[in-house]
Amino acid sequence: MTQPPAPGYVRLHEQGLLRERALALRALASPCRLCPRCCGVDRLRGEAGFCLAGNRARIAKAVAHTGEEPAISGTHGSGTIFFTHCNLRCCFCQNHQISQEHLGRDVSPEELAAMMLDLQQQGCHNISLVSGAHFLPDIVDALVLAAGSGLQLPLVYNSNGYESLPVLRLLEGIVDVYLPDAKYCSDIAARRYSSAPGYHRVNIIALHEMFRQAGCLEIDECGIAVRGLIVRHLVLPGCLDDTRRVLRSIRKNLGPFVPMSLMVQYTACFEAIGHPKLGRQLSAEEYREACTILKELGFSNGWLQQYCPEDRSFVPDFRCEDSWN
């Protein structure tokens, strides 16, 4: 346990460096190089690339979220901001209403900063950005405003793991806790299920950089993460071989002490409904085998989930006020 340090973005703001990062990120939006696809469209002129995001940040929901790992949600919830659009096209995406169907509204940096401050006022433990890579210029502009108005919460970067190394380097000192996915080792699966060529290569480079920046997980006296890296892996039905390869790769590249969140919550939804391989529930036996693999590889930190196939709370309805009910 450690005493929580001041969030990194607060220190950068005090040094006058946070605005410089915002300008550097905005330069990467025209032509767009904010993710590994490097579409090259002129986002500042409203052109849309693979993710279909425009020039303004688009938000689906900002809420005190209690459904994350205990070190993120704690007792008062994570101040979670769900961004619309995504640079992946996962056929099984549980957030497909916002990632693929574009539910949400455009907001200014001023409005986004006000959301962050409101979540802090609600007593949230952190500010968590869900799938925000394509809106990083507006996000860091908002952080400049929020930090100047008293925002003091750790910043969590909740990511699909398909991230650009130059962009991550601009986030050094801004992000306190990295919470990326490690979805695939198989390039065939990455292309087939998420339209993500080269996912594993890109992902491992990104995880290395995130660990270099944030280091080992640090928690405060209440058990809340204030700094570090947590890696998530969602176990997919019929894909245990790839789960084994993903976990082996993480152990080889990062070591067995990185906290792993091994997720059982897969539910066939969106385009996976009726899919010949992904159209069924993950079995209890498959998840037990995944847990065994994790243990045999020597991972000793992190979280497992209880197998409860009837629990649909992991599939939110973003059209409702309480999306997880």
Description:
This protein has 325 residues and is an alpha/beta fold. The protein has a domain at 8-46 and 54-227: TIM Barrel. 34% of the residues lie in helices and 15% in strands. It is built from 11 helices and 11 strands. The protein has an 8-stranded mixed β-sheet. Strand 5, helix 7 and strand 6 (177-180) form a beta-alpha-beta unit. Helix 5 packs across helix 6 and helix 9 packs parallel to helix 10 (240-254). The longest helix is centred in the middle third of the chain and has 16 residues, at 199-214. The model has no long low-confidence stretch (mean pLDDT 95).
Distance between the termini: 34 Å
State the total count of DSSP E strands.
11
Tell me, rounded to a whole number, the average pLDDT: 95
| Oligomeric assembly | single chain
| Share of helix, binned | 25-40%
Structural class assignment: alpha/beta
Distinct helical segment count: 11
Largest sheet: 8 strands, mixed
Helix/strand order, N-terminal first: HHEHEHEHEHEHEHHEEEHEHE
Low-pLDDT sequence parts: none
Would you tell me which CATH topology of the domain at 8-46 and 54-227 applies?
Answer: TIM Barrel
- Named CATH architecture of the domain at 8-46 and 54-227: Alpha-Beta Barrel
Portion in strands: 15-25%
- Gross geometry: globular
